[in-house]
Specification:
mainly alpha, two-stranded antiparallel sheet, globular, transferase, CDP-OH_PTrfase_TM_dom, phospholipid biosynthesis
């Protein structure tokens, strides 16, 4: 019944901007997380077009700003003592942009650009998507503490991808990117000629392992 009661606020679709009127302050903070992820994506695209390193640094910074908004939306919801089903969905969608799509495009921008690299990065995004969907569907089944918070994460939470963004930032500072010294550890050719569709950067394997850890059922990390 509580779920049906929560849905009633979205039944009224009359009038202009009826959906926007249902937004809470915490929802707007969550949307800012998505804004940061979107700006990161566009900054990466501008770097690829112009090769201006300032755009790459901007793209690397925005996911961190997104994390700040991701942290504060919960604080605001508790402060205002208001949460909504819409806010829960917004949170996952914004996380996918800022911590799934944006880091994958950053990896492409710095040099993971072979055909197999893009396959791995696509898998990374899809694993993040699957992890968020599973969290939304099963969060009620995870044991809670006295405050009502889940005791552990099943699989790596998607904001953990900021660790990868930090590594990419270090590589950028060292010049270990395409167009400068190149990606560390080089490539391996799985089939065909070097430079062809069968070429893969060794670093992509790390992204693939990270993606697998996000959807792991057995990996359980205690929540801080």
């Amino acid at each position: 019944m509580s779920r049906e009661h929560a849905l009633k606020q979205y039944e009224d679709t009359e009038g202009h901007f009826s959906l926007v009127r249902n937004f809470r302050l915490a929802d707007l903070v969550t949307i800012m997380n998505g804004v940061c992820g979107s700006f990161s994506i566009f900054s990466s695209a501008r770097y690829l077009l112009t090769n201006d390193i300032d755009y790459l640094w901007t793209a690397l910074a925005f996911p961190l700003a997104g994390l700040m908004f991701d942290f504060f939306d919960g604080k605001v919801a508790r402060w205002r003592k208001s949460s909504s089903m819409l806010g829960q969905e917004l949170d996952s969608l914004a996380d996918l942009i800022s911590f799934g799509v944006a880091p994958a495009l950053l990896a492409f921008a710095v040099g993971l650009r072979t055909y197999l690299d893009t396959v791995v990065l696509t898998g990374f995004i899809c694993c993040g998507l699957a992890r968020l969907a599973r969290f939304n569907a099963t969060v009620a089944l995870v044991p809670k503490d006295k405050a009502g918070k889940a005791k552990y994460f099943e699989g790596l939470p998607i904001p953990s991808s900021l660790t990868l963004v930090g590594i990419l930032s270090y590589w950028t500072k060292q010049g270990w990117i395409a167009g400068q010294q190149g990606i560390p550890y080089g490539t391996v050719t799985l089939w065909g000629q070097p430079g062809g569709r069968g070429e893969l950067h060794w670093v992509s394997v790390f992204f693939g392992c990270w993606a697998a850890a996000m959807v792991s059922k057995t990996l359980r990390l205690p929540k801080p």
